[in-house]
Amino acid sequence: MPKVGIIYNDIKPVANDAAQKLRAKFEALGYEVCLATGATGLLGYSHPGKPVCHTPVDSLIPPGFEQDMDFAVVFGGDGTVLAAFRQVAPRGIPLLAVNTGHMGFLTEIYLNQLHDAVDRLVAGDYEIEDRAMVLVRLYSRNCLSWEALCLNELVMQRQPLTSMCHFEVKIGSHAPVDIAADGIIISTPTGSTAYSLSAGGPVIAPGVPVLQLMPICPHSLASRGLVFPDSEPVMVTSATPEALVMVVDGNAGCYVVPSDRVSLTRSPYSARFVRLKSPEFFRVLREKLGWGLPHIAKPTSVELP
């Protein structure tokens, strides 16, 4: 019996309803259906009394979501999609993302397109686009104390009462650099359209094998963004006396003290997006962010006097 998965945002009634209806549809078509909420993909935030909230990467996989699963469908916004990929990436399961949120930059279709999409999924009429992910690890006293899969970005920043921060960043075998700023963002090409874009970083096409380092409000005219190969491991330490906050993909984080080391390496797992039409990144930029739209009306013809 073929197997499919459904992941949904259980705090949104529309996502709940859509998940139950899709489950019934797939079961009527002879599929075994595994249902899970996106909540298990949220690693949670630590707090001063418990500075580390550690969940191993492989323990986030929902029951039944194994490598024999043909594909899965996720209902939610971008946050749910990010959480869902942390759940299924270790098993290599492709995800069709259905937008029940707001912008839905990472989603493929809207709810009103789901009927036709199911027909194409069953017929195998789709493509798979692989997006790079990053494995983020926090080491305290040389022991692994926190880890997460990252599809968008890592952000390390000051707490509200902390002054400007100093970061030492070492990329591969290159000499370490010191950055004085409110924080830093290290993003994948997928994450280049998220927080990094708001901080003034460039948009990077998904297929380019790079990472991007962006300072947040740097206190130097010479401290600007850097793009480098994702084959280079990254190590970040803090030279700030106070504890800093590290957040991955906007919904999981922990505290970082000066004796800690944060490691970033390209993950062996990738985010596998189900595409119902050939991936066209510039089209998504135009539709979601308005990139490349003309600012003035162009004449359709020229009339000579």
UniProtKB/TrEMBL annotation:
GO terms for biological process: NAD+ metabolic process; NADP+ biosynthetic process. Its EC number is 2.7.1.23. HAMAP family: NAD_kinase. It is found in: Cytoplasm. It comes from Phormidesmis priestleyi. InterPro entries: ATP-NAD_kinase_N (IPR017438), ATP-NAD_kinase_PpnK-typ_C (IPR017437), NAD/diacylglycerol_kinase_sf (IPR016064), NADK (IPR002504). One of its GO terms (molecular function) is NAD+ kinase activity. Involved in the regulation of the intracellular balance of NAD and NADP, and is a key enzyme in the biosynthesis of NADP. Catalyzes specifically the phosphorylation on 2'-hydroxyl of the adenosine moiety of NAD to yield NADP. Its cofactor is a divalent metal cation. It is an enzyme of class 2 (transferase). The active site is at D78 (proton acceptor). This is NAD kinase. NAD(+) binds at D78, G79, N152, E153, D182, T193, A194, Y195, S196, L197, S198, N251. Belongs to the NAD kinase family. It catalyses: NAD(+) + ATP = ADP + NADP(+) + H(+). One of its GO terms (cellular component) is cytoplasm.
